[in-house]
Structures are given as C-alpha cells and as structure tokens.
Specification:
It is built from 11 helices and 14 strands.
C-alpha cells in the first residue's frame, strides 16, 4: 500500500520461502538464482561457486544469456563464515541500473540462501553417508552368501564405482614380482585392457599401496607418480587399501574421467570406510569358503574310508569265496561262470579303488601324479560323453612310470579318448593302465588299453567295439 516502508516484502518473503523449501543441493541453488532474478527484475542471474570441486557445477544460472552491456550486481554468499560463492545479476528489466534497494533485497536473499545451502549440504552429506553404509551392507551380504572369489571382488569393485560416481572400479592385488596387478575391473562399458595392467616395482605409489596407505590423486594422466599404461584415460582418483586384521587383500582404485571434479574429503572418508568394511567381508567370506571346502574334504575322506573298509573288503571276500567254489566245481560250464564272476569282481574292486583315489584328490589343485592326471583326462571327456569312462590301474603306476613315459601315455590317452568319443552309439569306454606289463623281449613296460563299444559311420567296427593299445618300456 502507499507509504509501505518495505514495498517488496511479499516478493521477498516468497523468494526466501522458495529457497528454503528444498533439501536437494542443486535444486536449492537453482531456486536461489531464479528467486534473485524475479525479486530484482534482472534478465540474467548466476551463482558462481568459490570451490566448484566441492559442489559440482561451477555455475548455476538462468536460461537467458547474459547481456553484452549494462550494469551488473553481485553479492557474496556465506555458509556460516565460509565463502560459498557469489550471486551475480545483470540486465535490469526496463533498462537502467540496479538500485540500492535491489542490492539490499539481494543481500537479504543471499543470507537466507547461505542457511538453505548449509541445510542442503547437511542433508546431502547424510544421504551420501546412508548410501555408502547401505552399499557396504549390501556387499557384506552378497559376499557372505556364497559367491566365488572372482565374483566377490567384482561385487566390491562395481558397487564402489556406483557409489563414488567413478568411471571405473578396479581391484589390484600384489604380484610375485613385488608389483601390483589389476585383477578385476568394473566400468560403464567394456573394461577393455584394464585387467592385467600392472604397477611395476619401483613406482612411487607402490610403497604406499603395499604398506596399506591410501593414495589420492588429482589427475591420473599428469601425476608423475602414476606409471601405468592406462593412466591417460583418467583424472581424479583414489586408491584405497583392502586391509583387515593385518591382512592386505589388495587395493580398491576409483578413477574418474579426465576433467571430472575431484573427490571431496567426505567422499574420501566414506570410501575409505567402505573399503575397510569390504575387506573384512572378503576375509570372512574367504574363511567361510575354506570351512566349507574343509567340510567337503572331510566328507570325501569319510566316504573313501567307508568304501575301502566296507565295500572293497566285502568284494574281496566274495571273490575269495567264488574262487574256492570254482576250484571245487566239477562242471566246466559252472567253472567258466564262476571265473567270469571273479573277473567282474576284480574289475569292480579296481574301479572302487580308483573312485577312492579320486575322492582323496583336491579338485581345486592340478593333479601331479600319473593316476590323478589320467583321471582328469577321463573326467574331461565324461562331460562330452554324458557318462564317465571306466578306469582301472594295475600295479604301482605312480612309482614305476617315469615322467617322460607318463607324458607320452597321456598324449596317447587323449587321442584314444577323442577317437572313441566320436564313434556312434558309444555307451561304454574302458581305460586300463597296466604298469605290470612286459614287452615280447621280456622288458618291463606300461600298457594303455582303451576299449569302446561304438562304431563308425561306415560300420567297419566289429560288434565287440574297438580296442586301442599303446605300450612303452619302463
């Protein structure tokens, strides 16, 4: 009304209420800019932050372009006593300069804006902390529900990348040569040749990483401490130790794209806490997997003992009784029948002993004995056949067959198994390794026999199938 000492009070109240109605920081900044333009009649308004690396965009502004000439007006924005940025106006509607009243209104708005920005910062920090805590909890849950070691590392790398807003999430582990190698990489698209990239011994950052210390980098492409062949792709980065209970599992690296904003102190702190939690989860998951494997090995040992103590002994005793009956039988046909039964029992005993040996092997380790390597070959072809070949060992094959001969035997076995697997209607393959054989000249030998019941397309094979024999002197 006429004579009102503060004629712009209602618009000012509206602007003040508007800037304080949001808790999301970027929306709050945009409301400040729009409110300042509307309150003063400026055609152009912008908020330029003092430290763009901390807040994201360097400038929030109205959609209209800045005028080429005309007076401007700007005031500082403080969050507490800390400078945040400056609120800038240009191009007064209707022409003419900005007035002292415009400046006063802008300063009142800037004061309220400082409070609103402080609240938005607190809200954003709380939400950011909540996201990192939820991410760490999700990683812990995933790692403790049975993932493999490789999947566990990928879970950590991918979740950390998303939380940090990084271009990539990679995990490095120490190499035998004393360096570090990227073993897992998560990116927006194909990680390309990131996996396998190494930090060679002597790198300036390596001592810190192996010592379990975090490394923070402003620009990976130009930092002289970075020596990897992929460093030119990235800008700001943080490299965080994955360490728990004094055990260094590796390093979690979170590089951003070149030109991206640096990590804030809060982001570095939260990422470090995430890395510590993830490392502990990895250690616990590893211990859990080892306990499960130990339980499996204990069960396998128990089964092997039961097979040996019960099944083999009973089969052996049954064979002895049949042999005694064979000697007493007077009818030749009965003797033949009992002889075949004894042979079948001996074959069964050999296969059970082979199964016992296989149960006693640790599947995660490559076999070193000839017996174990033969079983690995038959297990490989079993996946293609749909059934396991029958395997028998005669004599002390592991101690009698030297390494050179063992290699030749395995080569011949692979060829024979491959040929047998290609025959039609194969339902049984029998493999025999006989370390008690002898050559025609009387020399000790090892003999490999592979028999199958299949036939070729031409039907050239007999009804009894095909037998392949290989032997070599010992």
């Amino acid at each position: 009304m006429p004579g009102d000492p503060v004629p712009h009070l209602p618009p000012l109240l509206e602007a003040v209420l508007g800037v304080g109605s949001e808790l999301e920081l970027r929306t709050t900044l945009q409301r400040i800019v729009d409110g300042a333009a509307e309150l003063t009649g400026a055609r152009y308004a912008a908020l330029r932050t003092a430290d763009p690396g901390q807040e994201g965009p360097a400038e929030i502004r109205t959609t209209t372009p800045p005028p080429e000439d005309g007076d401007g007006l700007d005031v500082p924005i403080l969050v507490g006593s800390e400078p945040f940025g400056r609120l800038y106006l240009a191009g007064k509607s209707g022409g003419g300069p900005f007035t002292a009243e415009d400046e006063q209104l802008l300063r009142v708005l800037a004061t309220r804006a400082g409070t609103a920005i402080g609240n938005a910062r607190l809200y954003e920090a709380a939400r950011q902390r909540e996201r990192w805590i939820e991410g760490a909890a999700a990683v812990t849950t995933a790692l403790l529900t049975g993932e493999s070691a490789a999947d566990a590392l990928m879970t950590v790398a991918e979740r950390a990348r998303l939380l940090a807003g990084a271009s990539a999430g990679v995990i490095l582990q120490p190499t035998p040569e004393g360096g570090m190698e990227i073993v897992t990489a998560s990116t927006h698209d194909d990680p390309g040749d990131l996996v396998g990239t190494t930090i060679e011994p002597g790198s300036p950052v390596l001592e810190q990483l192996l010592g379990g210390e975090p490394v923070f980098i402003e620009d990976s492409a130009t930092d002289p401490r970075m020596t990897t062949r992929v460093r030119h792709r990235f800008g700001p980065s943080m490299m965080l130790p994955l360490q728990a209970s004094g055990q260094l599992i590796g390093t979690l690296a979170l590089p951003r794209q070149r030109g991206a904003r640096p990590y804030t102190d809060a982001e570095r702190r939260l990422a470090g806490q995430f890395a510590s939690q993830a490392a502990l989860a990895l250690v616990l998951a590893g211990a859990r997997h080892r306990r499960e494997r130990l339980a499996v090995y204990e069960d396998r040992d128990r089964i092997a003992r039961d097979l040996h103590d019960l099944v083999v002994q009973r089969l052996f005793a049954t064979g002895m009784m049949l042999q005694a009956a064979q000697r007493r039988a007077r009818v030749e046909a009965v003797q033949d029948m009992l002889g075949k039964a004894v042979d079948e029992l001996e074959s069964t005993v050999q296969e059970v002993r082979t199964a016992i040996f296989a149960l006693q092997q640790q599947p995660a380790e490559a076999p070193t004995t000839l017996r174990g390597r033969v079983l690995r070959e038959t297990a490989t072809v079993a996946a293609m056949l749909g059934f396991p070949p029958s395997t028998r060992f005669l004599g002390p094959v592991d101690s009698r067959v030297p390494g050179r001969v063992a290699g030749q035997l395995l080569t011949s076995l692979r060829r024979a198994l491959d040929t047998a697997a290609r025959r039609r209607a194969v339902s049984r393959i029998e493999v025999t390794i006989d370390a008690t054989a002898s050559l025609t000249d009387g020399r000790a030998a090892v003999r490999l026999t592979v028999h199958d019941d299949g036939y070729t397309e031409a039907g050239e094979d007999t009804e009894e199938g095909t037998t392949v024999t290989w032997q070599a002197p010992l």
